[in-house]
Amino acid sequence: MIAATQLRVGMTILYNGEPYRIVSVQHITPGNWRGMVQTKLKHLKTGSSVENRFRSEDKLEKAHLEQHEMEYLYSGGTDYYFMNTENYEQVSLSSEELGDNVYYLIANVKFMVDFYEGKPVGIEPPQVVELKVVDTAPNLKGATVTNTLKPATMETGLVVNVPAFINVGEKLRIDTTEGKYIERAK
Question: Is 81 helix (H, G, I), strand (E, B) or coil?
């Protein structure tokens, strides 16, 4: 069971006994009311969309999907192609099906691809990926003393907050569950 506050874009859940992929998630905490999680869900069988608001204390069941380890190959337009390394079968997923996981796609890295009734419906990235910094503000003098953060754009387009001493060209380890900087890669 997954707490509603732990829902992320790209996850698959069972809602009213049917499998849905989460398309968008917004946490709402209005004044002195209890927190809520506003979601947009896409039905895996029919493709129809529905919006639903969960209470923060609601528990949801994760949809059980068949998983195969596949290697990410390349992207073409809005489609991303993966290959099963055992039988060399290729499948493609759209950027809509992948959600925020597109920011963790690096060529030749293995991912767990989710299948529902024989059709690919999404991926689970590794817990940690190594990405290269392609754009960030210049290093600040004395930045090692203070605990200030600055935005950095990674090679996949992901923007994360990093310590001020990080420079362009460095490889960083990024936590894929929260999209946060962990440390410099060795």
Answer: strand
Tokens of 56: 């923060």
**Whole-angstrom Cα distance, residue 167 to residue 149?**
12
Picking from 118, 105, 95, the residue whose alpha carbon sits closest to that of residue 44 is 118
pLDDT digits (tens, 9 = 90+) for 124-148: 888 899 999 999 988 766 555 567 8
Mean pLDDT of 100-118: 87
pLDDT of residue 144: 57
Element (H, E) at 95: helix 95-98
Q: What is the pTM of this model?
A: 0.69
Architecture of domain 66-124: Beta Barrel (2.40)
> CATH assignment of 2-62?
2.30.30.30
Sign of CA dihedral 167, 168, 174, 176: positive
